[in-house]
Amino acid sequence: MDLGGGTWQRLTAVLLVMAVAAGGTGQGQSADGGGEDLLRNHDWTQMPGTTARNGILQVSALDRRIVEQDASGGRPNPPLNLAGPHLRSDGDFTVTARMSGVGDHDGASWLRLYGQVPVIYDEWRQERPSLRVGVTADGHVKVQIWDGASDEPATSREFDCGCSGTVTLTVSSIGDTFRVKADGRRLGTVQDPGVFAEGTVWFGLEADAGDDERREGWRLTQLTARAESGDALRVIKAPQLRQEQSEDSLRARAADVGRPFDVGTALAENPLLTDSRYRALAGSQFSMLTPENAFKPQFLHPRPDVYDFRDADLLVRFARANHMKVHAHTLVWHEALPHWMRQNDDPEEVRRTMLRHITAVAGHFKGEVAEWDVVNEPMSDDDESYTDGDLGLRSEQNPWFEAMGEEYIDEAFKAAHRADPNARLFLNEYGIEEEGERWDALYDLVRRLKERGVPIDGVGFQNHEYAPADRTDPETFRAHVRDLAELGLQARVSEMDVPLGEDEEDGRQTQAEEMAGKLRVCLQEPNCTSFSTWGFTDRYGSTADTKTYPPRPADSLPWDTALRPKPAYERLLETFDEA
Ligand code: 9MR
């Protein structure tokens, strides 16, 4: 994989702070003296959906969406330049974009300014405050404002412009008003509910596909930012990814176990690049990361012929900078699929789609990831699937099983092995920590796979304890880990979280004991190779209640919403010490 050495240098460059005086003419100013030239002086190579040539960015329709769990609907998930420049402003400022190739085809062309970057919770992208300005297919200029209180824009205004071809759009944030201009001509104002109250501005570029499915999008030929009336505006480069290490950490303990053992967490790229305290803990506490979403098909393979690995690569770079392993997740699952992947009923086509996806994705990350969840959650949730000789495999909503039956699992592992022969290959599942037909059926499945010579190395036990009934005896887990050892397979705790009920007495103690119990067993069983939680802080935890705005965080993970360690963290440390 080409991670671009030069880019890497730029990415890890020390925080570069540039004072941009209003109307100044120093180095870094654009040709017309309109402020700091964000396009030419800064890194846009990591902006998904774009290609850079001669200082111009081609923005194409990426069409990323987050579908709901039942595969319906889908919230747009347009990209932002996480590893590029962002602004710090404590006052009024102006951003100017020159856009070419707009207004002459079906889709709209957008510049998005995020006051806070969105957070992806379970099957949902929560919009936080942002402003989007763009040119529609019929040449209007449209302004939309998200105020952080809903998924939909709180304000939407359209101005007659007659714009097409090349347009220079200007947005000024002045007091509590946004002023919008096109080609220097005043279009109007929109009330600002406080989009940039945090003093930060992150950039996104979007091209709508439109009905004609054209993807060529538009071109950004200039982007500048300047302060208004003497207020300070600084352009900030992407943060350094390497984090300071500490002796007093989970990963330092894991390094002392006396055999290869990793302690991991799921990580999300948005907070990783924008929240320095999240980044510091992620890099200093863990020796392994699992991409929470970035490696899923709907994130990196949004259209049949479009792969965009840039957000995923950020996580790989972070891992590399901090000597962490990547446990990649996931190649074949029935969720998080872009709609196009479900649209074909021809079994041969479905098989080809699956194999092509695995070959491209595992091939891209070859040598960069230590392990893959090749197949995720293949077991059925329907009791009927476990009766009358049925083998308990999920068929509902699962296009892979529908097309190929059980064989999809064999094929997936073989293709992953061909693409990256050195990666350890896992099957990952929930609800298998306890006795019952689900575990029995999974055990039978992996035994069959081994008998057929399928290159599977291990099983991930997710250990989501969403309800008190999910709190399982570590000794049962131990028995299952040992069953796998007999088959020559490894095991790992892959996604643990322990959400507490509203008024659970001594809840945090229970949470700590649950996590410590599984870690202890994992440390004691030689074929158990890692212990990972599904995220590490409640600030971005996937079990938050996102039906409300802002979301109500759950109490599930070792660090709280203020990133303070909870008893679970202390108990995990102690458990390493006791081992
Ligand atoms: O935490 C993830 C959430 O942000 C996603 O919307 C969701 C669907 O892609 O997946 C969540 O992660 C799941 C993981 O991929 C598989 N096991 C269950 C995890 C928690 O729901």
From TrEMBL:
PROSITE patterns: GH10_2 (PS51760). Its EC number is 3.2.1.8. The keyword Kinase does not apply. Keywords: Carbohydrate metabolism, Glycosidase, Hydrolase, Polysaccharide degradation, Signal, Xylan degradation. It catalyses: Endohydrolysis of (1->4)-beta-D-xylosidic linkages in xylans. Pfam families: Glyco_hydro_10 (PF00331). Residues 25-50, 542-561 are annotated as: Disordered. Residues 244-575 form the GH10 domain. Belongs to the glycosyl hydrolase 10 (cellulase F) family. This is Beta-xylanase.
